[in-house]
Design goal:
This protein is of the alpha+beta class. It has a domain at 46-146: Flavocytochrome B2, Chain A, domain 1, CATH 3.10.120. Helices cover 42% and strands 9% of the residues. The chain is built from 8 helices and 4 strands. It has helices spanning 2-25, 28-35, 49-53, 79-82, 97-102, 119-136, 144-147, 168-171; strands at 45-47, 65-68, 71-74, 139-143. A 4-stranded mixed beta sheet has the order 1-4-3-2. A hairpin with a 2-residue loop joins β2 and β3 (71-74). The longest helix is centred in the first third of the chain and has 24 residues, at 2-25. Keywords: Endoplasmic reticulum, Heme, Iron, Metal-binding, Signal. Belongs to the cytochrome b5 family. MAPR subfamily. It comes from Halcyon senegalensis. Residues 47-144 form the Cytochrome b5 heme-binding domain.
Length: 172
């Protein structure tokens, strides 16, 4: 992901230069309107495993994130379930897809890997994913494993969850 991220940083720097030039060219009233307009959609983040691990519910005041099927949810509003010392805290700060499918908190099951799951476990995973996580918690991003190919290039087959405005081509 190194070259991709460096490319993204360079693109962001160029974008800032272009936006600054555009703002200088605008009359002051137009600049004022642009500066205070909230973004139309919340930004979507790509999370590496170490980045996601920072949101494990151990620090007070820090958001709590959990990934299922490569989708990162902000489960902070369920702090009593996912926060420090809470019953499902083992699931947060990582992609716990297998654990959710098997309804397991066994550390060996707290992984993205769904190899060998039964049809019943896969159905349970889809039910919980759609009816609990997507229904209850905001999506804040995706795991790098879901968005990038093994070589770090963008996965052009990536489909975001309920975010029709998101286009991976815009991200790279």
């Amino acid at each position: 992901a190194g070259p991709v991220l460096r490319g993204m940083a360079g693109g962001a720097a160029r974008l800032v230069v272009v936006l600054a030039a555009l703002l200088r060219a605008l009359p002051p009233a137009a600049e004022q309107k642009l500066r205070f307009r909230p973004p139309a959609e919340a930004p979507v983040r790509l999370f590496t495993e170490p980045e996601l691990a920072r949101y494990d519910g151990q620090q007070e005041g820090q958001p709590i994130y959990l990934a299922v099927k490569g989708v990162v949810f902000d489960v902070t509003s369920g702090k009593e379930f996912y926060g420090k010392g809470a019953p499902y805290n083992a699931l947060v700060g990582k992609d716990s897809t297998r654990g959710v499918a098997k309804m397991s908190l066994d550390p060996a099951d707290l992984t993205h890997d769904i190899t060998g799951l039964t049809e019943e476990e896969l159905k349970s995973l889809d039910d919980i994913f759609n009816n609990v996580y997507k229904a209850k918690y905001p999506i804040v991003g995706y795991t790098s494993r879901r968005i990038l190919n093994e070589d770090g290039s963008p996965n052009l087959d990536f489909k975001p969850e309920d975010q029709p405005h998101f286009d991976i081509k815009d991200e790279f």
